[in-house]
Amino acid sequence: MATSLKNVLITGAGSGFGFEAAMRLAQKGFNVIAAVEIYAQVQTLKWQAAERKVELQVEKLDVTNDGDRRKALDWDVEILVNNAGVGEGGSTVDIPGPNIRHQFEVNVTGPLLLTQGIAKQMVRRGAGRIVWVSSREGLNVNPFTGIYSASKHAIEAIAETMAYELQEYNVEVATVNPGPFLTGFNDRMFQTWESWEDAPSQRLFDYSKLAFPRAQFDPEPVFATLTAVAAGETESFRNLEPKSMIDETKELQRIPWERKVTDGLGTRHQAIKNAYSMDPETLVTG
């Protein structure tokens, strides 16, 4: 089946992981439908594809728009890469309600509704592949990314359940879980507070002084892995990058089982200290 599936829809293909995966899958000979959120991105992506000497079908697809989702049902999608997403940075007790709802509409509700229709087409066809671009944050948590992380935890639950539900219909389901990679996404997440409609005096933290609290990796491993998973070149359900963080990720999943409610009370968590001291767009070296 890996070689027979050719029609790929990638959401959020205007930048980052989705952009590069779209280009590389097209280079491999796949029929790529590269979806972007707004019409202003369509022509830009067509120009970029021409510069890379690849052919893309570029479409406007806002995953939160019901009309756009229905339109996608006419594209004969055999491989769906759910890559579209946004990141809302800030404390779980500070982020305003509209921003919380938007986080889940873009990252969870919209993609799931899109997938429902396309998955049923795959079932009728008797073959298909669904790739969820989750995150390491879908497996762990960090201060100031909790709402984003919650949306990715939801994706983990959806993807794993969907894999069980669709296996009898020969539909593959996989996740790709990027860690901290320097694409601009993480740093933009720590600027969303600038658009909050709230009372700044009531916030617990001064977000003008915060930055993403970890150094970030060159994104090439995610480009390669996402392309390989979409192309059916790997059989792993969960695909975390960088692989050097797999052991750390598993260890952090263990910690809540041993954590006491009194641990650290009255002290500032180290990750919060890091957010105050880190410079934006710090690249991992060495």
Give a summary of the structure in a few sentences.
With 286 residues, the chain is α/β, with parallel strands linked by helices. The chain has helices at 16-27, 40-52, 66-72, 97-125, 146-166, 185-189, 220-230, 246-258, 270-277; strands spanning 7-10, 31-36, 57-60, 79-82, 128-133, 171-178, 238-241. It has a seven-stranded parallel sheet with strand order 3-2-1-4-5-6-7, with helices on both faces.
Task: Please characterize this protein's 3D structure.
- The chain is an alpha/beta fold and 286 residues long.
- It is built from 9 helices and 7 strands.
- Strands 3-2-1-4-5-6-7 form a 7-stranded parallel β-sheet, with helices on both faces.
- Strand 4, helix 4 and strand 5 form a beta-alpha-beta unit.
- Helix 4 packs parallel to helix 5.
- The longest helix is centred in the middle third of the chain and has 29 residues.
- The N and C termini lie far apart (40 Å).
- The mean pLDDT is 96.
Structural class: alpha/beta
Counted by DSSP, the helix tally is: 9
Sheet with most strands: strand arrangement: 3-2-1-4-5-6-7
Question: What is the 3D shape?
Answer: globular
Strand count: 7
What percent of the residues sit in helical stretches (DSSP H or I)?
A: 40-55%
Low-confidence stretches: none
* Helix-strand string: EHEHEHEHEHEHHEHH
Please outline the major beta sheet.
7 strands, parallel
- Beta-strand portion reads 5-15%
Mean pLDDT: 96
